[in-house]
Amino acid sequence: MIWLTLISFCLVLAACGGGGGSDPAPAPQPVAQPEPEPEPEPEPEPEPATLGEVGTLEEEQSAFFTAMAGEIIEPYYSAFAGGSASLRDSINTFCADTASGDIALVEASWRSTMLDWQRAQALRVGPVEDGNTRFRIQFFPDVNNAVKANSDQVLSGSDTITEAVVANSAVGAQGLPAMEYVLFELGLDAETERRCEFMQAISDNLVTMSRTLAESWAEGASFRTDFESASGVFNGADDVIIAILEAMAVQTEDVADRKLLRAFETGDIELLESYRARHSLENMIVDVEVLTEMFDDDNGGTYRLNDYIGRVLDADATSAQIDSALAQATAALAALDAPLEDIVGGQASGDLEAIIDPLQSVASLMQDVAVAAGVNLGFNNQDGD
After folding, report:
1. Whole-angstrom distance, CA of residue 251 vs CA of residue 248
2. pTM to 2 decimals?
3. Could you list the residue range(s) of the whole structural domain that residue 141 is in?
């Protein structure tokens, strides 16, 4: 009986967790790890832009003319019109309060507008060649110092100087060089009222001319339509090709000879384009940039002269020579570390022949392009025409 009692007591203790023990802690459950997100697929490299298969002669010419008008000429004339308006605003602001005005802002605006003009006038085709417009915007070369003489004549008068007065004055008293003369030689700290009146009238006239030019190249404008379609004032596609090649040849020769060689040979800084503002080098750098863009802008999807030569004329050797010469001129300009005014004047050194020689080569090579295109250019860089 006693044994039965002890056994029962032990069973009760076991059921109650006897002996002060406890159940073991449950084993930790594993935490589910999130699946790693897959690496995103790399974006496919965009296909390089191309002009596609060579089309018919008419299709290639249309693409070339349309690109020149819409991607180079019109945008640059629009920018020039905008720059001219900004220049006028800066002059008006300064002249409204000359005591506290900052003439440096006017000078900077003039420099910017001069570069806008360099870009716009690089392809000398169309209305800019009508009615002396190009010379009214920039009379250069000025071998007889007409800018000073004509401007002094207007300033010395007693009548109010208006836009109409300037527009009917000799070309030396108009445009960017006349402004340069007042800003950088005469200054606006003396005879301020009269000189401001002159500057404001010049700027009004510049805005009028620049807007007219921009409108003549706007999409749908008569001259642009004629240019793109090789009709109207153009007697077929050959006429447009001639206009483009002659314009590029003349521009290249002007940069090499009229803007640099003559001053280099004589040591006369007054033969440089913008010597009063000491801005001749900046002008020339932009000139060569635009010539390069018209030839080949390194964009496979835009149509330039290099594309026309390769796709239509089969004159790759000539194209390579032009490309090399433009690159040489660009590098030579970049290597100059002093203003042209100092180099020509003997105060600094620089290899100007390394600029002149390749640009003269480009002018000559345009004749080779013309031969390949079966057209004759009136331009001849050997006799200065």
Report:
1. 5
2. 0.85
3. 55-219
